[in-house]
Automatic annotation (TrEMBL):
Species classification: Bacteria, Bacillati, Actinomycetota, Actinomycetes, Micrococcales
Subcellular location: Membrane
Organism in which the protein naturally occurs: Terrabacter aerolatus
Protein name: Cation transporter
Family membership: Belongs to the cation diffusion facilitator (CDF) transporter (TC 2.A.4) family. SLC30A subfamily.
Pfam families: Cation_efflux, ZT_dimer
C-alpha cells in the first residue's frame, strides 16, 4: 500500500495575504472619513448620512478584521496542533463582515420606519458635500480591493462592504438633491431604507459563500463526480472511493481519495503505485487546480478500509 501527498505543505502566503497592502490603505482612508461623516450626519440630522456612516463603521471593522486575519493566517503554529495552519481565520473575518452588514441594515431599517410620519429637518448642503467626498474615497477603495476580491473571500468581504458603502454615498448625494429640490424631508428616509435593503442582499450573498467554505462543500465550479471520473481514467485505477474535496480558505483547495488498482494477472507486473500517485496528483492539480491532494493506493481486494465506520 502506498500513500502520497500532493506538494504544497508549506505555510505560504494566502490569497488575502498577497493583497494585505490594499486592505491597509483602504482601512486608513475609510477610518478617517468615518469620523467626518458621523459628525456631519449627527449635525445635519440626516438619516442617509448616519446610515452611510454606519456602513463606514462596518467597513472599518471589516477591513481591520481582514487585516488581522491575514496576519493570523500566516503566523507560525507553535502548538503543533493546527495541522492546516490558521488559514480559516480569513473565512471567519468574512463571516464577521456579513454580520456587520446585516446589523447595520437592520438598524437603519428600524430608524427609517421610526421616522415615518415624523418631521425631521435635514440640511441638504452639508449632506451633498460629505456624500461627494465619501464617494471619492469609496471609489478609490474599490479600485484597490477589486484586484484581490476574485482571489480571496476575505478581501471579497471587505470589497463588498466598500461597494455597498459606495452605493450609500451615491444615495446620500441623491437624497440631498431630492430634499433640496422638492423640499420633502422624507426622501432622506426613503433613500436610507433603500441602502439598507441593498446592503442586506449583498450580505446574504457573501454569507452563503462563507457557509459553503465552513460547511466543507466542494469548491465552486467543481463537482466531485467529475474528479472521480478523471481519477478513474488514470492507468491502473479501477475504482475510486472516499473522495473528499473542500476549500480550506480562498485559493487553497484540498482533496483526499483512495485509488483501487486492478489485481495483477498471471505473468503481468502489478501497477506501479508511485506512477499512479504521480499521474493522479497531476490530474487533480492540472484539471481541478487542487495542489494539495492526499491520495492512497490500494490493491484490489484490500481490506485497508474495512475498519472505517463512517
Amino acid at each position: 500500500m502506498s500513500h502520497g501527498h500532493g506538494h504544497g505543505h508549506g505555510r505560504g502566503p494566502s490569497a488575502a495575504g498577497a493583497h494585505r497592502w490594499r486592505l491597509q490603505f483602504a482601512f486608513a482612508m475609510v477610518a478617517v472619513f468615518f469620523v467626518v461623516e458621523l459628525v456631519a450626519g449627527l449635525s445635519t440630522r440626516s438619516l442617509a448620512l448616519v446610515s452611510d456612516a454606519g456602513h463606514m463603521a462596518a467597513d472599518v471593522v471589516a477591513l481591520g478584521s481582514a487585516i488581522v486575519a491575514t496576519r493570523i493566517a500566516t503566523r507560525k503554529d507553535t502548538t503543533g496542533r493546527r495541522t492546516f495552519g490558521s488559514y480559516r481565520a480569513e473565512v471567519f473575518a468574512s463571516g464577521l463582515a456579513v454580520l456587520l452588514m446585516l446589523g447595520v441594515s437592520v438598524y437603519i431599517g428600524i430608524e427609517a420606519v421610526g421616522r415615518i410620519g415624523a418631521e425631521a429637518e435635514v440640511s441638504s448642503g452639508p449632506m451633498l458635500v460629505v456624500g461627494a467626498i465619501g464617494l471619492v474615497i469609496n471609489v478609490v477603495s474599490i479600485a484597490l480591493l477589486r484586484g484581490g476580491a476574485s482571489e480571496s473571500l476575505n478581501v471579497k468581504g471587505a470589497y463588498l462592504e466598500v461597494l455597498a458603502d459606495t452605493l450609500g454615498s451615491v444615495g446620500v448625494i441623491v437624497a440631498a438633491v431630492l430634499v433640496s429640490t422638492t423640499g420633502q424631508q422624507w426622501w432622506d428616509t426613503a433613500v436610507a431604507l433603500a441602502i439598507a435593503l441593498f446592503v442586506a442582499g449583498r450580505a446574504v450573498m457573501l454569507g452563503r459563500e462563507v457557509l459553503t467554505v465552513l460547511g466543507q462543500h466542494a469548491p465552486a465550479g467543481m463537482h466531485p463526480d467529475d474528479a472521480e471520473r478523471a481519477l478513474r481514467e488514470v492507468a491502473g485505477v479501477v475504482e475510486v472511493h472516499d473522495l473528499h474535496v473542500w476549500t480550506l480558505t480562498s485559493g487553497m483547495n484540498v482533496a483526499t481519495a483512495h485509488l483501487v488498482t486492478a489485481a495483477a494477472q498471471p505473468g503481468e507486473a502489478s501497477a506501479d503505485a508511485g506512477t499512479i500517485l504521480a499521474q493522479a496528483a497531476a490530474v487533480m492539480r492540472d484539471r481541478f487546480g487542487i495542489e494539495h491532494a492526499t491520495l492512497q493506493v490500494e490493491p484490489a481486494g484490500s481490506s485497508a478500509c474495512a475498519q472505517t465506520t463512517w
